[in-house]
Amino acid sequence: MTVSAIEGVGEVEHVLDVRGLSKVYGEGETAVHALRDVDFSVRRGEYVAVIGQSGSGKSTLLNMLGCLDAPTSGRYLLEGLDVANLDERQQAVLRNRQIGFIFQAFNLIPRTTALANVELPLVYAGVGRRVRRERAEAALSLVGLEGRSDHRPNQLSGGQQQRVAVARALVTTPALLLADEPTGNLDTASTTDVLGLFDRLHEAGRTIVIITHDDEVAARAERVVVVTDGRLTEAARR
Amino acid sequence: MSVIEIVRFAMRGLIANRLRSLLTMLGIIIGIAAVILLTALGNGASVYIQSQIAGLGANSITVLPRQPPETAGTDGRPLTSADARALADPQGAPDVASVSPVVTLSATTAAGRATSDVTVVGSTPSYFSGANVQMGTGRFYTDADVEAGRKVVLLGRTVADDLFGAGSDPVGQNVLVDDVPFLVIGTLAPAGQGQGLSNPDENILAPLTAVQGSLTGFGNLSQIVVQARSTEAQAAAESEINSILDRRHGIDGVDARDYQVISARQLADVLDQTLSAFTLLLAAIAAISLVVGGIGITNIMLVSVTERTREIGIRKALGAPPSAILGQFLVESIILSVVGGILGVAVGYAGTLVPLGDFRPVILPAAVVAAVAVSAAIGIFFGAYPARRAARLRPIDALRRE
Question: Cβ of A120 under 8 Å from any chain B Cβ?
Answer without folding.
Answer: yes
